[in-house]
Amino acid sequence: MASIIDIKIPRSIASALRLPRRNAKSQQRKVLKKLLNKARFTEFGQNYHFDQIVLSRNIEKNFQKNVPIFDYNKIYNEWWIKTLEGKPDITWPGKIKYYALSSGTSEAASKYIPITEDLLKSNTINYIKQLISVFGYKQANKRSLTKDFLIIGGATNLQKGEAGWFAGDLSGILAKKRPFWFQTFYKPGGRIAAIADWNQKLNEIVDNAHKWDIGYIVGVPAWCQMCMELVIERYNLANIHEIWPNFGVFVHGGVAFEPYKKSFDKLLGRPIVYVENYLSSEGFIGYKMKEERGMQLVTNNNIFFEFVPFDNCNFDAEGSIIENPEALLIDEVEEGKEYALLMSTNAGCWRYLIGDTIKFLDKEKAEVIITGRTKHFLSLVGEHLSVENMNRAIQDANDHFNISIQEYTVEGFPYKNYFAHKWYVATADPVNKEHLITFIDDKLKEINDDYATERTSALKDVSIEVLPPETFMKFMELKGKLGSQHKFPRVMKGKMLSEWEKFLETGQL
C-alpha cells in the first residue's frame, strides 16, 4: 500500500504549506485584510464599512471600533438566519451549502454554524500540517502514517433544508468533502460512519476491528477509550497492540486529555504519540507541535483572533460578556492570563465569541492551552475555579491513588447560609471517597489562591459522590448525546443540573 505522504498534494495546498514563517502579528494583519477584502461586498461587509476599514491606517483597531462582538444568538438572529432562507452574500460571499449542527455541552437547541468551501479548504491545509508535524516527535512510529486511519466521529448522514443546504455533524460534512485518495485509508468506512445509533456503530467497529491495520486514531478521548476497551474485551487481548500492532498516533481534542491518559496508557502495549488539536465547528484553531505542552494557534491561515481578558471587568457572574469589553490583539496579550477567544473567519464569523477560555504559555510561539468555557466555571463567592484547575486536581488524584477517573462534573449550591461544592466522579477503581475529596480539595487550595481563601470563609463544604462510569454514559444517552463530539460538562448549572439530579434519583430525565 502506498504511503499517505507519497500522495501528490494539490498545488494550492502545497503552496500554503510552504508559506514563509513570519511573526504572529504580521500574519494576523494579513489574514484580517484578506478576510475583509473578500467579504467587503457582502451585506455584513457593507453594513460595517469593510471597504473603508481595509483602506485605513490601522486596520485592526478600526475593525474593532466599527464591528461589534457577537455571540451565537446575536449573529444568528441578525445575520445567519438569512442564510438559512437561501439568501447569498450575507456574512460571506455566495450561498451557504453546509451547516454544522452544534449544541455544545449544555444548550438544548442545535446551533447552525455555517461551513463554507473556503473554510473547508483552510481546514484541509491545517490537517496536512498537523499530519506532517507528527514526524517531529522522537518516539513517532513513521509506519503508523502508512496504515489505516480510524476516525471515530458522529453520523455522516446530513439533513436537507428547504433552501437546498445540508446540515449535520461536522464529521458528516467532512465525509462528503473528503478527498478520494483518503478513502483507501479511512476506517470505519462510509457505511458504518453513517450509522446514527452510537451503540450500533460501536458494535460494527468492534466486529470489523480484526480486518483493519490501524496506525492512527482520531476522536474524543472518552469514546475512543470505550471503543478500544470493547475491542480488547471482544478479542480477549492483553492490549490494543495485539490486534493493531502499528497503532502509533492518537489525535484528540475537545476536552483536556490529562484525566484520560492514565487509563488510556493501560490499553497499550507500548508508547504512542498523543497529538492534541483545537478544532471546532467554526474553524481549525490550533494543534500541538512536537513535545510542547500547549497547542500553537494557526495564525497564518483563515482566522483572525482577538482575546478578551476573562475577568470581572469583561464578564458578569454568569459568564456573559459585557457590552464593549476590552479586546486585545495577539501581540498585546500576556502569558499566564486567561482570555476568552474571539474569532473572525472565512465562514462568515465576525468577532465571534466561541465560548472557550485559553491561556498563553508562550506568546512568541502563540502557544496556548484551553482552560475552560466562559459559562463553565465555579465562582459562587469569588473562588474562580476554572476547568483547568479541576483537570489538574483530577490528574494528580489519579496519580496519587493509582486510579482512573474517566469523567467528572461539579456543582455549586447554597449551604447553611454559606455555599458548597459537590463533585461527581466516575471510576471503576476502588477508592476511599473521603480521602479522595480531601486530596482534591487540598490540591485546589494549592493551585488556586482565591479558592484557598474562600475555603476559610464562605465556601464551607466540599463533598463527593463516586459513581460507576456507566452512570455518566447512560445520562448522555438519555440526552441524545452519546458518542461523536459530545462532551460531559465539567460544571453543572441550570436545566442540565436539574436533569442530572433527577436522573441520579430516578434513572430518568
From TrEMBL:
InterPro entries: GH3 (IPR004993), GH3_C (IPR055378), GH3_M (IPR055377). GO terms for molecular function: acid-amino acid ligase activity. Residues 388-493 form the GH3 C-terminal domain. One of its GO terms (cellular component) is cytoplasm. Signal peptide: none annotated. It comes from the Bacteria. Residues 298-362 form the GH3 middle domain. This is GH3 auxin-responsive promoter.
